Amino acid sequence: MIARAAVLFFPLFLLLVVSDVSAARTQPPDAPSPPAEQTAPVDAARPGAGGWDFPDENEAAPTLGQIVAPQAVDLVLFPAFLTLALVSFFRKSVGLKYITLGAALIYLGVARSQMISVVNIFGLLSWNLPIFRYSLFWYLFAGFTLVSTILWGRLYCGRICAFGALTQLMDRVVPARLRYDVPLRVETRVAYIKYAVLAAVVVYYLATRDITIYRYV
C-alpha cells in the first residue's frame, strides 16, 4: 500500500520540483534594497564640508610708510648725490668733479649697479616699466637724467653715469704714455656710428622683441 502510494505520488512530487526550479530561473532578481542611511550631498562652498576651501584673497593695500620704508635710504642718498653733482657742474670745480665721479662709481656703480642703457629704451618702447610706488629711486634717476640732458647736455655722462665716471678716473690715473688719444677730426666723424648702431638695435628689437640683443651693444 505504501509502495503503491509512493509510486503514485513520486511523479507528482518530481513535477512540482521541476516546476519550482524553472520558476526560480525565470524570475527576475530582487532589486537591491536601499541603504538604511543615505549620505547627504557635500556642499563644496561650505567651509569644512570636504570641498575646496579658499582663503580670503582680499589683501589690505600697503600704507605709504610701508612703501617708502624699504626705499628710504636711496631717497635720501640719491638727492644728496645729485646736489653734489650739480654743485660740481655749475662751479666747474675740478676737485668736486672727481669727488662726484668717485661717489658715482661707488654708489651707482657698485652699490646700486644702476645706469641708463638700451635696456631702458626697450622697456619704454614696450611699456614694460617698473611699478612706480616700488621703484621711486628708478623714476627719480631716469627723470633727472632726461631733464638734465635736455637742459644741460652731457651732465649725466660727465658726472652721473658710473661707466663714464670709471673711464674718467682711469684717464686720470693711467700714465699718458699708455694712452692713445684719437684725433678730433676722426672722433667727430666716427661718433655717428654709435647713433647708427643704436637705431639698428632699436629696429631689431621692435621687429623681433628679442631683448637679449643688449648684450652685444
| Share of residues in helices | 55-70%
Unreliable runs = 1-29
If you compute it from the alpha carbons, what radius of gyration comes out, rounded to the nearest whole angstrom?
44 Å
In total, the number of strands is: 0
Helix-strand string: HHHHHHHHHH
- Report the sheet with the most strands, covering strand number, pairing sense and barrel closure: none
Task: Output the number of helix runs.
Answer: 10
Instruction: Assess the beta-strand content as a share of residues.
Output: under 5%
Which whole number gives the mean pLDDT? 79
Which secondary-structure class do the elements indicate?
Answer: mainly alpha
Terminal Cα separation, in Å?
Answer: 126 Å
Shape: globular
Task: Give the SSE map.
Blueprint: H1 2-26, H2 64-68, H3 72-91, H4 94-111, H5 118-125, H6 136-152, H7 155-160, H8 162-173, H9 184-190, H10 192-208
Helix pairs in contact: 3-4, 4-8, 5-10
Q: Could you explain the architecture of this structure?
A:
Among the domains are: 66-175, no CATH class; 180-217. The protein is globular and about 65 Å long. With 217 residues, the chain is mainly alpha-helical. The chain has ten helices and no strands. Residues 1-29 have low confidence and may be disordered.
Task: Describe the structure concisely.
Helix content is 62%, strand content 0%. It is mostly helical and 217 residues long.
Structural descriptors:
globular, 62% helix, 10 helices, single chain, mainly alpha, disordered N terminus, 217 residues
